[in-house]
Design a protein that fits this description.
The protein contains three helices and two strands. The chain has a two-stranded antiparallel ribbon with strand order 1-2. By secondary structure, it is mostly helical. It has two domains: 30 residues, no CATH class; 43 residues. A hairpin with a 2-residue loop joins strand 1 and strand 2. The N and C termini lie far apart (75 Å).
Amino acid sequence: MNPFEMVVAIVAITAIASVIRAKYGVVRRHKGEDFVRPGPDPETERLRAELKALKDRVAVLERLATDSSTALDREFEKLRDRD
């Protein structure tokens, strides 16, 4: 094996090892390696709750847009009381 092939092999092995480390959640910190267990992120949970609330509001608005005017007035009153 000539030196060029050896350098290419070392680079390939290093690249493959870093991809495997990333897949399994191993993070290098200073002189050691830690396993990072992916868990529920509070920001993600907050955004999911906000998205659910927005979907509920859109559903109400769609229903209001397709109902008759008397039902529309009642729904507006419900929404005013809720906020």
